[in-house]
Amino acid sequence: MHEQHTDHTGFKHDHIYIAQAGADINLAAELRAQVMGTEIDRREAAALEAENFILPFSKYEFLNLFTQAERLAIRTAAKNDVVIEDFLSLLSEAPAVYLTNPDVIAGINYFVQAELLTQDRATEVLNG
């Protein structure tokens, strides 16, 4: 069986293997595609890290930079503050969160202005 996967840069990853007689080829191909996709993602992340690029946070990872009390205070404040509401709305639509993104920095700084974070905590969050 021959598979070929193309990563986001257009590089083709080939994998050739022998399937057992009577094996469900479609299921094997689907499972291999999942494994290959994960491996491609891992290699790309390692390459970016090795080249000293900034890796994004998932939304979950980003929100976990805050304490539970901070998250609850931010969500509560968003009910009465359209700037915070807008920031959380943008965050919910983001595929990933880069701590160097000017909108993220502005949002965190706004949390300081709104007294939801101290400057020290904002710095900690922005440092990941």
Question: Could you describe the 3D structure shown?
Answer:
Helices cover 58% and strands 8% of the residues. The chain has a two-stranded antiparallel ribbon. It is mostly helical. The protein starts with a strand and ends with a helix.
Secondary structure topology:
Layout: E1 2-6, E2 12-16, H1 25-50, H2 59-63, H3 68-78, H4 82-93, H5 102-113, H6 119-126
Antiparallel strand pairs: 1-2
What's the shape? elongated
Query: How many helical elements?
Result: 6
Could you give the order of strands across the largest sheet?
1-2
The biggest beta sheet reads:
2 strands, antiparallel
Quaternary structure of the protein:
single chain
The count of strands amounts to 2
Structural class: mainly alpha
